[in-house]
Fold these 4 entries.
Entry 1:
Amino acid sequence: MRGLRLRSSLLSSLSLGLGIALPWLLPTPLRAQSAPQSAPTRVSDSAAVVGVAESLLRAISTRDTTLARRLMVPGAQLASIPDPAGPTTASRTQGDSAFMATLANGTQRYLERMWSPSVFLQGSLALVHAAYDFHLDGVFSHCGVDTFTLVRSRGEWRITHVAYTTQRAGCAPSPLGPPRD
């Protein structure tokens, strides 16, 4: 009986060990892998995602809902985070439909500019992070940081989420200089 328990325990250990090691012993094509992107692909993808983020800011600045809709996936979300957040302030989240309605129905002139974007790429996922300033009817309103999350679908980069901080005081001057009318 003792020998049977020992063999059973040994077989359990062996099968557990093989279960852990077997995937690493399989031929390479059977294992999931993340191939590193070549330098030209990373550069062109980085330029493409920054271009999409800048195009959304252009759509906001011109109130172009057709362009904005084309750049965003259905159901995209936008989140505004006050900075610094006080005890009575709260972030605000809206879906793409509410965002499109605001864009279409507003009368104020918007100008949003970003600079020095940083890009993170992993396969078909990208993040763009950049400082920005925002002007209403030609007057400075606020600054902050924009973060865009994008996915590549059917060969196109589209925005799934935009999150941004809104800072009304203490903003450093934009390296882009004053807005041009």
Entry 2:
Amino acid sequence: MVLFDHNHEMSSSQTQEANSESNEKMTILVASDDFDRVFLAFMIAMSARSMGLDVNMFFALWGINLLRRDSDQPAMEAPETSEEKQKKGIMAKMMAMMMPKGPDQLKLSKMNMGGMGVAMMKKFIEQSGATSLTGLMDMSVDAGVEFTVCSLTMEIMGFTHEDLLGLPNLSCAGVTSCLGNAIQSKMFFVI
């Protein structure tokens, strides 16, 4: 079974051992929008899924930027009970303009060098045969990783459901949801 990197494979005994333990969970709190940190979060998520763990990724603070959509992408559907304010104030509009939208606009946490660092990192990933961040995100959706966006972060930053990607396994919840998942999880990562 190939995980996501053509050079690293899980043995069938590791896969069978991981799959024999049902109801194993992992929660990853993604609070950063740095390319390298987000890439790590998705590598961990896909590794856990390949071992049979249920994974919830909770996006808060700057991490929410990864799930922001461009105008040509489908939007997240708002729950019927949602009474979001569609009109944004000038501060929320300015903040939204300054923040990255999606994986292609993220920067490196170190050595970004005006964007050259992230371009170099993407090239290294491609040359190594590993899956790109966008590819890992797509694989995570297909593998059933649950994505939860922090409702308080959305409120603070002035985002609505319309601002987020329309992923089939994306929901919105409060911090208590993240803590509840963490309590039920064997592992909890903060990235």
Entry 3:
Amino acid sequence: MSAQSILDTDGVLVRKQSLFEIGQELEQIFDAYEQLSGEEADSYIASALEQYFEKLGTDLNAKLDGYCGLIKTFEAKAKIRKEEAQRLINLAATDENNAKRLKKRLQDWMEITGNQKLETTFHKIWTQANGGLAPLRWVMDHGVIDGQWCVEWVPEAPPVDAGIVPEQFIRVIPEQRVIDNEAVRNALNEGEELDFVKFGERGFSLRIK
């Protein structure tokens, strides 16, 4: 016997409707309802739905229960998998941080001991200058300390409205004024001396192969 068929109370083999077919028939009822108006529409839809649900009986209830149960199952599985994914992401972040700390300690030791390149039984270890653009260092504070003029340089740029960066190095994007780093770099590359910014030293990073 087909999974889509069942014997009715008279022993007659009838085909059960799928939830998709039930949905289609309900759509047809409401489509017809939209063509009517007023009391005629209300009377039609009430009668049509009453007859339709009487015809379906418990078949609709069972299908909807199964369908909703399947939705709940997938939602529960999705929630569990999201939580597990977040747990794994957190573990991966911890592993990455541990690796960075260990590499930093090894790099510090190599710099202190003057070793730029080492080779063990299984690994080659060396320090290498970072590529890319030279970092910018911005003036944060300056003044006389113990009779000497002192300046502190930091990697974070000062606020645009602090008055430290001249207007020629400020550009305007929609509704916002920002420091034009490209103009700053060009000026430094051309040898211009700026009292609010300078090139920093490229750092070194550890390589392991």
Entry 4:
Amino acid sequence: MFHFVRAIEEKQVKIIFLGDDKVGKTSIIRRFAENIFRERYKPTLGVQVFTKENYEYPANSNQKILIYLWDIGAQELYELVRPDYYVGVSGIVFVGDVTRPETIERIRHWANEVKQHVKYPHGWAVALNKIDLIGEEEKKTTKRRREALLELIPEKMRDSEKIFFTSAKNDLQIIELIDCVLSQIIK
């Protein structure tokens, strides 16, 4: 008896994570790549690259993806070398911290920096991270708070299908965030 096995096709993608210090870029990446969360991390200096091997996207498709996840440091010291990290990028995740609205406002800065150095289409999404840190009183007004946070995002980026309220600690919307980026890259 013959058994036919569908060939597994592996693609490679590079997703960079951009945002201010302490917004949770490393936490999101480690939750996705290694299913790990730690309360404390040292700041990323320059860049740190993680991989997620054999990620099946779309689910049940037998299409395996090797994902390179680039955790890019936000320090001004690295501003001149950051564009080198953008070479070959397939997708971008902009990250802000819901407990620090100024980090969400600065997503515009990160988007402008990318626009200056990345000249071809790419997938993107926005992670409004640390949703688990919103207090009980604020959770009662979650809808209003979320709408207020969305107003801080640059108008051109207010695509509700590309904005995720995430928690790396509670593993909330992490896979959906990455799948959103992949859906724009892999057709």
